[in-house]
Amino acid sequence: MNQGTLHSLLAEEADKRRIEELRRFIDYHNYRYHTLDAPEITDDEYNAAFQELLRLEERYPQWKTPDSPTNRVGGQVLSALETRRHTLRMYSLDNVFSTEDWQGFLKRLENALPGVEPDFWCDPKMDGLALELVYENGRFAEALTRGDGEVGEVVTEAMRTVRNLPKVLRGVFPERLEVRGEVIFRRTDFMALNERLRKDNAKTFANPRNAAAGSIRQLDTSVTASRPLRFLAYGFGEVRFGDMPSWRTYAEVMARLRDFGFETPPGGRLCRGSAAVETYHAELAEKRETLAYEIDGVVMKLDDLEAQEALGYTARAPRFAVAWKFPAQQATTRLLDITIQVGRTGVLTPVAELEPVSVSGVIVSRATLHNEDEIRNRDVRVGDRVVVQRAGDVIPEVVRAVLSERSPDSQPFVFPHVCPACGQAASRIEGEAAWRCVNLSCPAVIRQSLAHFVSKAGLDIEGLGQRWIELLVSSNRVRTPADLFTLTVSELLHYERMGVKLATKFVDSLQRAKKEATLQRLICALGIRHVGEQTARTLASAYADMDALGAASPEELQTLPDIGPEVASAIRAFFEDKPNVALLARLKELGLWPVQSETPRAPVGPLTGMKVLFTGSLSMPRSQAQRMAEEAGAGIAASVSKKLSLLVVGDEPGSKLEKARTLGIRVVDEAAFLALLNKGDGTLVGEDSADAPQASIEGNG
Ligand code: IVH
Known about the structure:
Layout: H1 3-35, H2 43-59, E1 72-73, E2 76-77, E3 83-85, E4 95-96, H3 99-112, E5 119-126, E6 129-136, E7 139-145, E8 151-153, H4 156-160, E9 176-184, H5 187-199, H6 208-216, H7 221-225, E10 230-240, H8 250-260, E11 269-272, H9 274-287, E12 295-302, H10 305-311, E13 321-325, E14 329-342, E15 348-359, E16 362-368, H11 372-378, E17 385-390, E18 397-401, E19 427-428, E20 435-436, H12 443-454, H13 466-474, H14 481-484, H15 489-492, H16 500-516, H17 519-525, H18 533-542, H19 546-550, H20 554-557, H21 565-576, H22 578-590, E21 611-615, H23 622-631, E22 635-636, E23 646-649, H24 655-662, E24 666-669, H25 670-679
Parallel strand pairs: 4-13, 21-22, 21-23, 23-24
Antiparallel strand pairs: 1-2, 3-8, 5-11, 5-12, 6-7, 6-9, 9-10, 12-13, 14-15, 14-17, 15-16, 17-18, 19-20
Helix pairs in contact: 1-2, 12-13, 17-18
This protein binds 2-(butylsulfanyl)adenosine (IVH).
C-alpha cells in the first residue's frame, strides 16, 4: 500500500467517525429541542453541525442510513415503509371494564344468537404491536402492521429477524394462512434495552409497546435484529384451507397455531360459560404484575366459529369478542399548577402540571382535569397531593386530591373566563360543561386545527410538527389549512433552522399529501365535530366528494350506519359555517379535492333487497362469499329467521339447514349461489325445489 492510499484510508476512517459523532450530537440536541423543549446550544451551532453532516453524507453516500437525523424532520423518522391493503380488515376490540359490563356483552350476544353456547377462548390482552403474517404454502411470505386496519405497513424483513417466528410451518398446514398476533418485549428484555440505550446516550422507550413498535417499524433491520422481540399468535385473517378441513372452534385454532410452531399468549384457555370467564379474569388480574409480559386485560372470543361468523362485526369491532380491561393504574404525586389549554374547537381544558411520576411504566407530568365542574367536584387545588390515573391509551387524568395531606392555606382554583391565548372573553354554553373561546382568529384555535389537519388522523403530513405550525402561524403566514399548500421553498428559507434540504422536504411532503389525500382523510382532517376516523370512512364511502357531502340533508345522513341526529346536525353546521365554505372553495382551487370513485354504498345487483346467510364450509372463505353477496346488493343475516331470503349451504351445513327448511326458506348450494350472482335477472336457479335440478343440494344436514 503506498503512502497516498494509506493517507486517504485514514482520512475516510476519520470522516466516518465524525459522521457518527455528528449524528449523536444532532440526535441529542433534537431531543433537547423537540422533546424536552430545553435546547442547550444556539441555532447557529445546531445548523453548523447539521450542514456538516449533510456534506459528509453527500460525499459518502454509502454511509447514509435511514435513521440519520438528516432523514428526519422534528425528530420523527419519515415513514418510508411500503404499505399494503389487508385481505380482510383488522378490527379493533370493544372494551368492558366490570362484571356488569361483561354480562351486558353476554346479553347482547345471546339476544343476537339465541341458544348459543357461551363458551369462550380467553387469553391475556398483550400490550404490543399488532401484526398480520402471511404464509404461502407453509412459508413465511409477508408481514404487515395493523396500520389503520385496512392498510398496514410492510415489515416482512424486520419480522424475519424475530427469533420465535416460524419461517416454515410444521405439519399439515393450509395453502395460504394469515396469522394475527402481537410483537412484544418481555419486561426484563425491555428494561435491558433501555439500560443499553441510556448507556449509548440514545433515546429510551417509554414502555414495552413503544419499544416493540419502534423496533419493527424500522428501515434498518439490523436494529430490529439486535432486539429480543417475540411474536405471539392469537388469531387469523383469511385462510385458504386447500384440502384440509376448516376449523370449527377457537380452541382448535389455537391448538393448530401451536402445532404450526407459533408461540401463543401464555395461559390462554377455554372457559365454558360466563362464570368460568369471570374466574379467569380475576385470576389473571391477580397474577398480572408477576407475568413476563405486560398485559392490560383479558380477551374473550366466542369459541364457536360459525356463531362468530353469524354475529359479524360492527363498524369497528367484532360482536363475538371483547376485551375485559384491568382497572386503571394509579399513582400519587404533587399538583404543581393548573394551566389552561385551548383546543381546536376553542374548548378551554384545564391541565394539571404534575411533579413527574411513573404510572404503569410511563412517566406522567401532565394530566387532564376535564373541565371547571370536574375540578370543583373533585375539589383539586394547586399544591395538593393528587391521585393520577392512566388507563391504557387514555390521556392521564387526575382522579382526586389526597385531602389528609392538604395544606391549610390552599385555595380553590378559579377557572378563568377569558381565553389565555387571545385574551378575549370565553363563553360557557348552556347545558355544556366547557368554556369555549369563540374568537375565530384565536391563534391557539388556529394552531390546534392545523395540528389536527396535518396529524395522523388527518392528512398525515410528514414532518410538520407543532413547532413549525407555531412559527408559521405566529409569523401570520398560515391561518387556514389551505395556506399550507401555497408555501414555497424560497420563503421557507427565511425561517430559522430551515435549510434547502429541509424546506424541499417540507414542500414535497405537502404536495404529496395533497396528491394522495383520500376523501376519508380530508373529512377527518377538517375536524368536524363528532366526526372521527370511523365516521369519516362511512361518509367517504357514501359520497363522491365534499360537495356531495355538503349537499346532504340531516335526514339523509342519518340513513348511514352509526350516524345519529347529533352527528348529522354537526355535519350540517360545519357546511353552513361561512369560513368553512370559504376554506373548502380554496382547497378545491388548490387541487386538494379527492373524489371517491369506488362503488357507491348499497350496490344494486341481482340480490338487492335480499337477506342472505351462509352455513357449512364453502370452497372460498366465508367472508369472501359474504362480500360477493353484499356487492350483489344483499344484506347478510345473523341467523335463520323468517326474514331470511336465502340460505347458502356448503359442506356439513349443520342445524341451520333444518331450521331454514322448517321455516320454508329458500336454500341453495354454492354453485347455485354463484350462478345467481351472474344471472342478474332475479330468478333463482338451483333452488331446493323440483324444477331446478341442475345444482341442487345434498340435504345431509
Ligand atoms: S384477538 C377476534 N387476542 O388488542 C379478535 N387481540 O385493542 C381479534 N390484542 O386489535 C383480536 N392481545 O391487536 C386478540 N390475546 C389477544 C390480544 C389481542 C392483544 C390486540 C389486538 C386488537 C387490539 C384491540
